[in-house]
Amino acid sequence: MTQGGQAGLFARLRADFLTGLVVVLPAALTIALVLWAIGQIDASVMPLLPGHLPYEHVAGMGVLA
Hints:
Blueprint (H helix, E strand, L loop, with lengths): L2 H43 L15 H4 L1
């Protein structure tokens, strides 16, 4: 492989890596934000629910309530 071929290969790998970051990072941040928001809502609503419910904790119940 010539020197120009290696430079082209590394440029393509770098471009593909950056493209992958542009796709994956927003999706990961969105999922993290949604999970955080559900946790915050659960933490504020679950104490308001009656204590005699037949379960200890169901994730997301505060959002549904």
